[in-house]
Records
---
Amino acid sequence: MKISVIMAVYNGAETLKESIESVLNQTFKDFEFIIVNDGSTDDTAEIIGIYQKLDPRVVVIEHKNQGLTKSLNIALGKARGEYIARQDADDVSLPQRFQRQVQLLDGQGRIGFVGCNYGLIDSEGCIFDFGPKEDNPDKITRGLARKNFFCHGSVLFRKKALEKAGGYRDFFRYAQDYDLYLRLIEFTMAGSVNKVLYYRRVLLDSISISKSRLQAAYAELARKSYEERRAFRDDTLILKKELLDSLVAKSGLDDSGPGFLEAFFCIKSNYTVRARQIIWPYLFPASLSKCKFYALWFFSYFPLPLRRILFYLKTNIRRIKLLTGYATK
């Protein structure tokens, strides 16, 4: 078997069908699809059960809620594939994702894991932005020491590389993917397919927004752990709640991405006063790097009909770019 696809889901019924079907409809067919129901209390179990009956590639694991990290490690323990593909229950893989990523790993033995370009979609499936694009393995591998380029659900790993790295570490409730990448690049390289093959759904209650400070703190701790290992020191000695708490307190406005997304969605939902409250702390001190916040601030004062027209145009321009190939560059 070539690929084991692993997904962990907790109360994901609203988006689960679309996500599962995006995997089952891949042009590359040689895979098993391991879905861990992490103690869901909504209709998740029923939805998974339907697809398990329809497609023998679907393997279901049920357990009490343990969180994403432990659920993924349980799925890894059951995986039989040469490669391991991640898929998040909120997200959508485009049909050629596995095919293109397998071609890259098959053709470049020095690469141990591979991502792809990805689009950001809202709760309605409208594209509003794209993630960072870089396909040079040397640049990606070096750059990961400073920043996480990848969308976790879009990554395909060599199973042997994952096993050598030790899988996901239980300490990391969030940024578990970034901690894993930083351990992987110590002995292998990262790559990426320079084409949009994945849509990451961003919701107001997702980890990326509501848990942004905690996410940023765990990511910073992953970087500090990497630096400790680079200095030939035992990085597990710094994986302490006390250090994490101090990083959470310091994180503040260091990571402006989630704040921008939350303000963006508030404006789209016509909660303009709330949006301005979110934007205000980011405006000072003045800096050219904050131009997107200045633009969003002024945009919040546009009349609602004009904002709707602009949102409509933005979404459809993005779709046109995807169809014509401009967004893949």
Note: The longest helix spans residues 304-324.
---
Amino acid sequence: MPRAAIRPRPNPTPPPDDAASTLEAATDGAGTDAREPDPPEQQDASQTAAAAADGPLEPDAAVAAFLDALDHGAPWYPALLDIISRWVAPAESVAGAPRDYLIAGEAFDWLSLAGRLLEAAGSRIPTLEAERLLFRAEPPDGSDEEAFARAIGVAKHRAHLNFQYGVVVEETLLLTAELDLHKARNIDGIRGEPADVTAYERIYGKPLAELMALYVADTGQPLGARVRQADWQAFTYWCSKYRLKTGEPARVASDTRKALALLSRLHADRARPTSFIDPIAEYIEGETVKAE
């Protein structure tokens, strides 16, 4: 089954209580300040310039503003976060291909948007730095989560945390169940459905097919035989809410800690390029990731 990429940020913060419903709502007030109004004859021009310089941005204007900042010598990572803080489109089409950044209206996949902007920038961005950001979530300036939250704004950061906990952590939880099933099958032999399908029943108490039917009934969003990544992420996000709603609180907390433990370990191993230890293989061979 398709999975969201596991893209951790170091030292994850606790899950949020709420989220921005749209990226436009998350950008309200971006770049505004209090000042005396311009004379009437200058208002149209000044407002247009202010919007281009500081205000919310639709995709084409956002890409143009990002490239202009780079061409004028701005450091690329702060410029990237500035554009992301002002981006308002939850989705767009790029060269005929759909790109989704806001999952289920609540979960902001900021690295997908970052990738779209870095693709547009091309050779203006050092390749290694871009890859470390996109595949390891490592900023080039070493800034921490608090600086990241300040840069993109409170509402967008909450929506980002929804994606982290509702999609990334949930996918990692499914991965832990799948790995446990692989370990059991190494001992007992292969039986029944594949481990990545059976993992759903282990986590949610219902087979995958039944969960998908419940999701369609609840959201009205169909899931066919071939599912786009963004649609599968929306299903995963729904599953995370279903687990929180129906699960035993102690089990929910334990499962979440287990997923965070594996996620932290994966991040630590990715940060050590000279390591030849495969944490997934090691887990299957018998080492258990324990919840604290």
Note: The chain has a mean pLDDT of 81.
---
Amino acid sequence: MEYAPARVFAYRENRNSKLSLLRCPLRVDGLSFEGASRTGPVTPGSQKILIVGPSWVGDMVMAQSLFIKLKILNPQVHLTLLAATRSYTLARCMPQVDELIELPFQAGQFAPLARWRWGRKLRQKSFQQAIVLPNSWKSAIIPWAAGIAQRSGWLGESRYGLLNDARKLDRKKYPRMVDRFVALALPENSELGEIPVPQLHYHAEDRQQALSDFNLNPDYAPVLALCPGSAFGSAKQWPAENFALLARHYIDQGWQVWLFGSAEDRAVSDRIRQGCPMVIDLVGRTTLPEALDLLSCATAVVSNDSGLMHVAAGLHRPLVAIYGSSDPGFTPPLSQQSRIVSLDLPCSPCFKRECPAGHLDCLRKVTVARVNESLGDLLQAHAPVI
């Protein structure tokens, strides 16, 4: 998922925060990368945990539940997050993250020697524990090379040795991804207790700047945000024609409709604009932080199961989430202000990028009327506060 390049390389320090996110060069054993580092104060004697974060945007939002749980268990814990480029910017909206390091590796890049060198460089930070959220073998190399005493994660790709707290997954006990993340904050086989929900924080100054940059005014009419794309594939995308019909209905009711997505979603947004030229198309024009800031202005959001859907849930915007090939029981929106629309057909969830049967009934048979009804019920139940 590619968003527009960042317009600036340093985020302003929020006046209520001790942290800042800065673009800076990182050198690792002769390797130089343009990385990102955010550093907060370390309380003497506090526990230091390195977290290897997920690369997908939606997964990173759900990972915040783990960060919150760790802070509840030990308010003095110092959390350092290693994150891929496409997801690390979300951490500026997660006050639980004390230090942020951007990894330079491309999606799917193995690079074991470079990862080992990164780990060796991190030895000087003296972490007591690492929590590895991805299940891939390569994601466990850095904590192992860093010599961290306790390296926790799910066994995944047979990561014996790389992890010394490698846990076998009980899918019935931990049916949701967020359950599996939060379980790693606790000793093995512990009861999860209450699962904290993500709480993304936007900065008012950044939001106002984004509104100004795109000449938007959320005050003159309610805003329906539509997120019609999905980086995973077409088997998670409600038809563009249906999004256009829904947009036209709300514009006729006096709303404004904003489209969100990455550059990869432009073909979908073009089809929506053909059916409803009055929409405001932001697809491919915003950075991820700008999209987050603007989504925080939405009166309501309708989205496929995507990273932006989880961002909207983390912002606690009234949200209708449409599921096709994916499982709402595994990665639901973690917000009380949400409604799930899923037909629960015998062939779904199939977890395929493209419909293996070729009909895409799990999404094509979701009517505009059904989505509109869910949205109306949601707005009646939750008067939005912006």
Note: The chain has two domains: 22-183, 204-381.
---
Amino acid sequence: MVRRIRTKPQHARKPGSTVVALCGLLTVLGFALPIILAIYLSADSRPLGPRRVTDVIERFLNQGYDLGAVATGDVRVPRLFLPRIPKDWRGLVPADKRKQAFVILILPLVLQANEHVYADRQRLLDLAAQKKKGKKASAQDQGWLQDLAESYGTKAGDLKELVRRVDVIPPSLALAQAAIESGWGTSRFTTEGNALFGQWTTDDGNAMIPGDRDQGATHGIRRFPSLAESVASYFRNLNGHKAYTKFREQRAAVRAKGKDLDGTKLAKYLASYSERGADYVEAVQKVIATNQLAPLDEARLRSEVGPTLLGVLPKRK
């Protein structure tokens, strides 16, 4: 026996009701569509990860960030940290405008990395002073020293070597190298993988393959989750790799004389950073001089610490 389901009778629509409903819908869309489009088109102006370079620069300028004033020491650099290069970066012309924008965007990241290193250095120097007085480090300090030594590729008990490695890098030097290695931010390794310093890796899962790589070569350019991670890795590279021992020794010698670190002079000890050797050193020094980066060695971040507008920094290791 088939069971039937009783349904309510449907009422016929009145003639013209469909037309009236359609007209009403079009009227609503006429008012709503411009609003929807405005919201969609303004999506790039949201706080995190803006895509347009003009939006990014405007945010920096609204914070009173002016390179000329920073160079003279009149103002400090705001704590704004860009997670990646804006997608329309290559379209920023002329070249001198792009160069200035590159320095504006990368300088805060370099200064923040230096702050991290400086804080570790001060704690390290305190522990070294206590050791000279015959005081034994606490279990917590010993654990911290062990972690620090591992991250810098040396032994925890060799405080002298740790002090030599745990030190800041002049911003002018870091900015010049980043400019050369990334083509002032235009390299695909930078735009696609946040690689500012052209660091090599043999990890296939984390490498971008250069188009001109020699046959049989196995290296690639290491990619990073953010620009800040790239800067942090560059610091660990210069401060830990054996190829830059002379760089660290010269920096320590300058410290011992009580003088300020000079990016142009320290660049002389980075010939091993590139296959170009001495030509690379000359190129770094030329970028520093031509773009007047040396005064930025005295730049500092503002003391107030608040939520960043443009992204987040990596966790300290």
Note: The domain at 64-298 is CATH 1.10.530.10 (Lysozyme).
